[in-house]
Structures are given as C-alpha cells and as structure tokens.
Design a protein that fits this description.
Elements (H helix, E strand, L loop, with lengths): L1 H11 L4 H28 L1 H8 L25 H17 L1 H12 L11 H31 L12 H18 L2 H10 L5 H6 L1 H15 L5 H32 L15 H14 L1
Helix pairs in contact: 2-4, 2-5, 3-4, 4-7, 5-6, 6-7, 6-11, 8-11, 10-11
Protein name: Sec-independent protein translocase protein TatC
Subcellular location: Cell membrane; Membrane
Main location: membrane
Length: 286
C-alpha cells in the first residue's frame, strides 16, 4: 500500500521531502557510478588521452619554451599519480555525460505533468551533442588563450608551466564551454512546459546578451578577449535559435488554443449549437 502511494505521488509530481532526498541520493549514486566507470576507461586510455589533452600547449610560441621544446613541468613526487587521476576523471566526466545529464533531467521530470515528461528523451538527445560541441570548441580555442598570455612574457624568458596548472585550465575550459551550451536548451524546455514564454524572452533579449558577455568574461579561465568571444558569440547564437523555437512553438500553441487572444476579463465565445444539443440531451434524459 505504501508503494502504491509513493508511485501515485511520483506520477502527479508530489513527493514528501524525504522522498525527494532519497531520489536525489539515488540519482547522485548513479551519476557517480557512471563517472567511476568512465574514469577507469580514462585511466586505461591515459597515453592517447594525455597526448590529446596536451596538444594545445605544444602550439605556444617556441621562443618561450626551454630549448625551443614546449614541455610541461612536473613539480612533485606524487604529481605523476595525480596527473593520471585527473586525466582519468576528465575523460570519465566526458564519457559519462549522457548518464549524469539524464540524471539531472530525471530528477526534475517528476515535478512535471505527465504530458511534459515525454520531453525527457528529446532533452537527452539534444543535451549530449551540445555538451560535446561546447567541449570541442573549448579544445580548439585553448591554444589561443595560451598564446596570448604566454606571448606577453618578455622574449628573453622561459615559461615553465606545471602539469597540474595546465590540467586545471583544460578541465575548466572543457566543462565551462560544455555546460554553457546547455543553457539555451533549458530555455527551450521551459518554453515547452509553459514556464517561459517567447514574449518574456523577447523583452529580456538585451539583458540576456549583456549577461552572456559578462558571464563569458568572468567564467573563462584565461579571461582573454578571444576566449570570451569564443564562448559568448556561439552561446548568443544558440539563444537566438532557442528564441526562434519559442516563437514558433507559442504561435502554434496560440493557433491551437480556441481561447487565445482573449483577456482575463473578456467572455469566451459560446458555441450555441453545442449548448442546444446539450439542453436537448438533458431534456430527453429528464
């Protein structure tokens, strides 16, 4: 009986606080398990993964490298282990992104109506490619930020960059770009479930564009103009696509709604034929 009550509560979106906490715990456990499995794969594939991740650093100006060879520096005895662990976690987080992105949406979905939960698979189908697209763009632009700041060092100096510092920079770039590219998708999902209308998006466009540039300037690790623009401009483009989707969706919804265009104080149109049919039916029943 208790199980039936909990199932009914989950179906209509109402759950006790402890059930929400248990749900969050279960989602976190599943996401962590997926991350661990991905990290194990990343540990096994360390050599090709490390060669791939360090590639942007090898493209910095050679005059700032030791004897013209751009190598990263290991400072501590235990850095070798932590390098492998961090690379494995980066690869694991990327590989497991379909799982933890789904867990995020699945935690929110029980609060939606049943007709809105059908968007789960659409969310996942769009979220994973957007995350990977952001990560790819971050990887492509990483060397540009490195060249700008390392290039500011005097020509007669040698820049020695620690592996841990570089991996922290690469990790921040990959995940900031990847997660930022998810934000326009959330705008679309909020529009689909009726929380955010196109009219509200349109009125907030200028503030939204300004906020994107401010966020890009603050969130990017290097905070150089090129990296900021590389994050801000595609994000604004994605927001414009999201606004266009919201416009088309709201217009279709208004066309399908027979009461669209009426104010709250205006009487809805009456279908006299339907009223006469109902009265005639009621008279026969009486």
């Amino acid at each position: 009986m208790k199980l039936n009550r909990r199932s009914a509560a989950a179906r209509d979106g109402r759950m006790p606080l402890m059930d929400h906490i248990r749900e969050l715990r279960n989602r976190l456990i599943k996401a962590i398990i997926a991350l661990v499995i991905g990290a194990i794969i990343g540990w096994i594939l360390f050599e090709p993964a490390w060669g791939f991740l360090k590639q942007p650093y090898t493209q910095i100006p050679p005059e700032h490298c030791l004897e013209g060879k751009c190598d990263l520096v290991v400072h501590g005895i235990f850095d070798g282990f932590f390098i492998r662990l961090k690379v494995a976690l980066i690869i694991g987080a990327v590989l497991s992104s379909p799982v933890w992105l789904y867990q995020i949406w699945a935690f929110v979905a029980p609060g939606l109506y049943s007709r809105e939960r059908r968007y789960t698979y659409a969310f996942l189908a769009a979220a994973v490619p957007l995350f990977f697209l952001g990560a790819v763009l971050a990887y492509v632009t990483m060397d540009k930020g490195l060249k700008i700041f390392i290039g500011l060092a005097p020509g007669d100096t040698t820049v020695l960059v620690g592996v841990q510092d570089y991996l922290s920079y690469a990790q921040a770039m990959l995940f900031i770009f990847g997660l930022t590219f998810e934000l326009p998708l959330f705008v679309i999902m909020l529009n689909l479930v009726g929380v955010l209308s196109h009219e509200r998006i349109r009125k907030s466009r200028r503030l939204l564009i300004f906020g994107v540039f401010v966020f890009a300037a603050v969130a990017t690790p290097s905070q150089d103009p090129f990296t900021m623009l590389a994050l801000a401009l595609p994000t604004i483009l994605l927001f414009e696509i999201a606004e266009l989707f919201a416009f088309l969706h709201d217009r279709r919804r208004a066309r399908d709604d027979e009461y669209a265009g009426l104010s709250d104080d205006e009487a809805s149109p009456l279908n006299l034929d339907e009223i006469d049919a109902e009265l005639e039916k009621g008279g026969r029943t009486g």
